[in-house]
Amino acid sequence: METSAQRVKWTARFVQLAHRLPTRAKLVGGLAQGLMSAFAAIVAYLPTKPLGLREGFWGSITAIAVVQNELHDTQNSARDQFAGAAVGGVISAIIVTFAGQHLATYAVAVVISMLACWTLNIGSAARLAGSTATIILLVPHQGTAGWMMMTSRIAEVGWGVTVGVMTVWCVNKVEKSLSANRSQPH
Description:
Layout: H1 4-20, H2 23-45, H3 57-66, H4 71-99, H5 103-119, H6 126-138, H7 145-183
Helix pairs in contact: 2-3, 2-7, 3-7, 4-5, 4-6, 4-7, 5-6, 6-7
């Protein structure tokens, strides 16, 4: 498994390479990323209301967060997004049910959610678990808030993850097909 130091090293190399790219390549890359992200965000948002999801924008935000140029990177990001939402959601719903919605229970939910991610060997999802705990415990809501918000949040994130991964998968398939057609003799 890759360490944080290795990731930082590769990120620094990538940044150096990106600075060397010609302006046209940067524009094309940025445009491609923007188009994929916008498409995924819209597709992730459109069915949320008919499906009864109250905050469909989380599906859009998640789709944007997971969409990357490489499918492998997208899948890793998607795994972290979904795992973080699930862990943070379940822990926060349990805590809000038994201890209420207070600043102290919020802090406990963040700590336990992050600890759980690390214990489950998904430390890369810990920040997202903390973010989900924040949404469940700090965003005002009515009724059996924790469980309804958790269910909705996990569904919205799951949908956004699915749309983001499928968007990148489709774009990669089209790119490979176009590349194969260009390399074929006419």
